[in-house]
Design brief:
Blueprint lengths: L4 H5 L7 H15 L9 H15 L2 H8 L20 H8 L2 H9 L11 E7 L1 H6 L1 E12 L15 E2 L8 E8 L2 E8 L8 E2 L12 E12 L8 E4 L15 E7 L6 E3 L2 E9 H6 L1 E7 L2 E7 L8 E4 L15 E8 L6 H13 L14 H11 L3
Parallel strand pairs: 1-9, 11-15
Antiparallel strand pairs: 2-7, 3-6, 4-5, 8-9, 10-11, 12-13, 14-15
């Protein structure tokens, strides 16, 4: 191969497609015959275009890297291949937006409004059962004076005299291909095809005004921190009375004094005296559903968990609720008086626990059993 296309574009051989396009655009602007006046610039422009044609096409670039020049006679597709065309020329000299405007004509003045994100704080009980709330939002609403027309009442938009309502203007530019017709948005009407000679005095020709609104929302049971509720069409009105955007409410759940949430289950700690745990008792516990009697069997151990079914969080978009897990914390008495100490000593004597044996028991014997089985290859 007689030409090093990478050197022509001034890039490394491992350059990315974006680096190749960036290098081409820079050189094309400098060497285009309509811009450059130095001798040989037109030939260099053709070399740069040929290099970009090859390197911007993955298949042709792979052939070139193997030592085959696809742009040479018989080496591949001539002229403008799959990687190079008129769209690249328009993007290089006139911008992608202008090329798009030429294809679609006048752009609509009415556009969709933006979405809004609000944060809503709820309590644990509200997250468990759901709640109806009202939130205030500062947003854009339809102008009541012009009703989105952007014009003073009694007037209307006028067709642009510059572009004749097309929204674009065309001009002829000379290039190495000859004369090329290009299009760009009309500067007089900004591509809308119409102008507003007498804007609405209330909204200054926007078709919308700022206002504070109150929105009602039903927060379903089961929401948690990070849950988003979408309120379709409750966002700001678009320019010129365009469709409204959406409002997203992001939930933030406040921490509770007694309960900790894990999924749809609730967990709490219930401290009970040693004697109550030994003898068994009934404790009244304040739950999200009100007071509930919790029965503790005789001999309840520290760390034991009592599960109350259906007293947790409601399932989001489903029936039923999670459970309430009550973790028992047995309290050992301190500061005993003489009579209490004597009673405990008598109990220890009756149970032969005056001098307990010094032996250790694993907290989780099942864990050691599994480890033993694994080491023994069972």
């Amino acid at each position: 191969m007689s030409t090093d296309y990478y050197a022509v574009l001034g890039i490394e051989r491992d350059a990315s497609p974006e680096q190749i396009k960036k290098a081409y655009r820079k050189l094309a602007r400098e060497l285009h015959p309509d811009v450059a006046t130095t001798e040989g610039s037109e030939d260099r422009f053709k070399d740069v275009s040929r290099a970009y044609e090859v390197l911007s096409n993955p298949e042709k670039r792979e052939m070139y890297d193997r030592g085959v020049d696809p742009s040479a006679p018989g080496g591949g597709q001539g002229g403008f291949g799959a990687g190079f065309g008129f769209q690249d020329i328009f993007e290089t000299f006139f911008g992608a937006a202008q090329g798009a405007s030429a294809q679609r004509g006048p752009v609509p003045r009415a556009r969709r409004g933006q979405d809004a994100l609000l944060r809503l704080e709820v309590t644990l009980a509200e997250a468990a059962f759901g709640v109806h709330r009202e939130v205030q939002v500062d947003t854009a609403v339809l102008c009541s004076t012009c009703e989105g027309s952007c014009c003073r009442p009694g007037t209307s938009p006028r067709t642009c005299d510059v572009c004749g309502g097309r929204g674009v203007v065309q001009r002829v530019a000379r290039s190495f291909l000859g004369q090329v017709m290009t299009s760009s948005p009309c500067a007089a009407c900004h591509g809308f095809g119409t102008v507003i000679p007498d804007p609405c005095p209330e909204c200054s020709g926007e078709g919308r005004v700022r206002s504070r609104r109150t929105l009602s929302v039903d927060v379903p049971a089961g929401v948690e921190t990070g849950t988003r509720i979408r309120m379709t069409g409750q966002g700001e009105v678009g320019p010129a009375g365009g469709p409204s955007g959406d409002v997203y409410l992001e939930i933030r759940e406040k921490a509770h004094d007694l309960f900790v949430r894990r999924g749809d289950d609730l967990h709490c700690t219930l401290p009970v005296p040693m004697t109550a745990a030994a003898l068994g008792t009934t404790v009244e516990l304040e739950t999200l559903d009100g007071p509930r009697a919790v029965d503790l069997r005789p001999g309840t151990q520290p760390g034991e968990v009592v599960v109350e079914r259906g007293l947790g969080i409601g399932h989001l978009n489903g029936a039923g609720r999670g459970d309430l897990h009550i973790h028992v914390e047995v309290q050992v008495p301190t500061g005993l008086d003489e009579e209490q100490t004597d009673l405990l000593r008598r109990l220890a004597t009756l149970r032969d626990e005056e001098r307990p044996e010094s032996r250790l028991a694993p907290a989780h014997p099942g864990v050691f059993a599994k480890l033993r089985d694994k080491l023994s290859g069972r």
